[in-house]
Write a structure and sequence with these properties.
By secondary structure, the protein is an alpha+beta fold. Helices cover 22% and strands 38% of the residues. The protein contains three helices and eleven strands. Helix 2 packs parallel to helix 3 (91-102). It is globular and about 50 Å long. Pfam families: Methyltransf_22.
């Protein structure tokens, strides 16, 4: 993002920070990234319950989610709204999805994101899915 942190509403903030499986810098652009657990610590959210945690991190979900589950960072979120990026599915991706289920989350809504749609002769497909989970 080419913007600074800002407050969008009474309880909505945007932070120019990437989410990853480890804290530091990432990629050739040296983006600042942190684990979800570290972000919660930095924002003093360690004892807060989140009504909604929305994550769209352009393929980094597959690296970040196992860390979020392992560290318990997801336990405070009532709803998890994710955009998943895929194409071919790996065993690790399936295990990650199963781990979300094991944490008590259930899918209540999903749809294909048309941004990355691929058009074939008689079919349209997208490798991107927005999936909304509710913790039961």
């Amino acid at each position: 993002m080419k913007t600074t942190d800002f407050k969008r509403g009474n309880h909505i903030w945007f932070h120019n920070l990437g989410l990853s499986n480890e804290s530091g810098t990432y990629g050739k652009n040296k983006w600042k990234v942190s684990t979800l657990q570290d972000i919660f610590k930095d924002l003093n959210h360690t004892s807060k319950v989140l009504d909604i945690l929305k994550i769209d991190i352009e393929w980094m979900e597959w690296q970040s989610l196992p860390n979020m589950i392992k560290t318990g960072a997801l336990t405070s979120a009532k709803q998890l709204l994710m955009e998943f990026h895929g194409g071919s599915v790996s065993l690790q991706m399936l295990q990650t999805l199963r781990s979300i289920y094991n944490e008590g989350y259930r899918i209540y809504w999903y749809h294909r994101n048309p941004t990355g749609k691929i058009n074939w002769k008689f079919m349209e497909n997208s490798p991107y899915y927005e999936v909304y989970f509710l913790k039961i």
